[in-house]
Amino acid sequence: DGFVLIQNKENLGAHISRNVGIGSGKGEWILFLDDDIEPEPDLIMKYCDRITVSDAPGYIGKTSFPDPCNRFTQAVADSDILTFFPLAETRPSMWWGVTANMMINRKAMGDIRFDERFPKAGGGEDIDLCLRICKRTDNEFLTAPEAVVSHGWWNQGKFGLKRFGRWAYGDSRLTVLHPELRFYNFPNVAEGVFLGFLGSILAYYLGHAELWWSLMIPCAILLADVFGEFIKLGLTKRWSLTNATLVTAIRGANDAGRLLGNLSRGRIHGILERFDYFCTGESIKYERKVAFLKMFL
Fold first, then answer.
1. Which of 61, 168, 267, 270 counts the highest number of beta carbons within 10 A?
2. What would the pLDDT profile of 210-269 be if each residue is shown by its tens digit?
3. Cα dist. 155→56, 160, 281 in Å?
């Protein structure tokens, strides 16, 4: 009772469906929850408690994942690709949050909506929406760590890389839409393999290399990245060659999605571009250091 179910006649995608929901409601606050989460029973009350004691254009709740259930989910956790899901627990404010658990003030949102240029399956549209709201209001979102939802492992924890590539495919638009958050870095594993392959093919046609280099160089880059992850993870989390290989595959799929997104739009100059997800510059120095060490290997 008291709920209205809106069902699209066809799949409009995550972004447009959310816009339909925004336009169909009249509430002062809009709560976003993804369909693969389980909210705590007191979720809305925890948001209400936060709203009554502070003023912000929106609030970011905590999205928690269960303990890893196998080697792949352990690698997902170790890859740091889930950093922003539970980040509300440790930060007082954020420039953006994932739509798995987020509440936005309708007045602060105004006529801003999810950009329909992003992929239907999702990726980057939540970051873009939040950043435009923060810029308009000149305020960051506050966090509500007590507002918790539980997020299960995708596909029951089975191996799968498509999701991580899809996220970055959409994220590749962010450096164009928010150029002030763009920075450049050394080649990641996907760019390294791509440039290494093209370079070896060019060297072959110029008579400076054998054809088998076009396979050897990309393979060497992949092995170097695995070795780099093995050292980094060994010093910070655990020593495991299998774990390092899986982490490389996860990060590589993410990097490949970003590369493909740029190339599909003819943005060759998008290679080496990066987006500052923290929006503060705090992680850029560390990211460059890790990328340089891997390139050196």
1. 61
2. 888 888 988 999 999 999 999 999 999 999 999 999 999 999 999 999 999 999 999 999
3. 35, 8, 34
Least confident of 42-46, 154-158, 198-202: 198-202
State the Cα–Cα distance between residues 261 and 266, nearest whole angstrom: 9
Alpha-carbon gap, residue 129 to 124, rounded angstroms = 9
- The residue type found at 21 is G
Q: What are phi and psi of 39, to 5 degrees?
A: -75, 150
